[in-house]
Design brief:
The structure is a single chain. With 200 residues, the chain is an alpha/beta fold. Helix content is 20%, strand content 25%. The chain contains five helices and 19 strands. The chain has a seven-stranded mixed beta sheet with strand order 2-5-8-13-16-18-19. A hairpin with a 4-residue loop joins strand 18 and strand 19. The chain is globular and about 50 Å long. Keywords: Transferase. Belongs to the transferase hexapeptide repeat family. This is 27366_t:CDS:1.
Length: 200
């Protein structure tokens, strides 16, 4: 039975081993670097101005796969492709965020990132012999609504974080996080359960 041959980009999005240095992916990353250079060196202005909407906000919308209302990202910001990142409404991202979006990254509404937050969908083989041959892979990351991720936190490949979660500063999230909890530590563990407000 014959099937379609996947491109390296399609393999990456499917979570399969892929080669990152094909012409298509190299060109995509270069285009993103050029956009990030412009964004990271843009003039700071108030976010409630036309200048902001036509400057930084417009750049974010051109960079990301999709972006909701009232999205603010403090430069510098770094990512691999940009088009695999999807953010909801009222997203705030503090300084020096890195998102290695070799696979899809979905971020819900009313999410806040502290400074130096890193999202790492990208991963490599553990065995050095296999790693040296070049293939890598990536797993999607999904973050729910009303999430606060503290400064310096790291979100590892394939992680889903539920709604209403607080991730403590400096945490390394290696397992999925259920809704309405506080997690902290390396590796991050649940330290508090939260009550969901506004329900009978």
């Amino acid at each position: 039975m014959s099937g379609k041959t996947l491109s390296e980009k399609e393999k990456a999005l499917a979570g399969l081993p892929y080669l990152a240095y094909t012409e298509e992916l190299v060109n995509d990353r270069l285009k993103t670097r050029e956009m990030l250079y412009e964004f990271n060196n843009s003039k700071p202005v108030r976010r409630d101005t036309v200048e902001y909407r036509e400057g930084r906000e417009k750049m974010i919308r051109q960079l990301f796969g999709s972006a909701g209302k009232d999205v603010e990202i403090e430069p510098p910001f770094y990512c691999d492709y940009g088009y695999n990142i999807h953010v909801g409404d009222n997203f705030y991202c503090n300084f020096n965020c890195t998102i290695l979006d070799c696979n899809k990254v979905e971020i819900g509404d009313r999410v806040m990132f502290g400074p130096n937050v890193s999202l790492y969908p990208a991963t490599h083989p553990i065995q050095p012999e296999e790693r040296s041959k070049g293939p890598e892979s990536a797993l999607p990351i999904k973050i729910g609504n009303d999430v606060w991720i503290g400064g310096g936190a790291i979100i590892c490949p394939g992680i889903t974080i539920g709604d209403g979660v607080t991730v403590g500063a400096g945490s390394v999230v290696t397992k999925n996080v259920p809704s309405y909890v506080v997690v902290a530590g390396n590796p991050a563990k649940i330290i508090k359960y939260l009550e969901k407000k506004g329900e009978d």
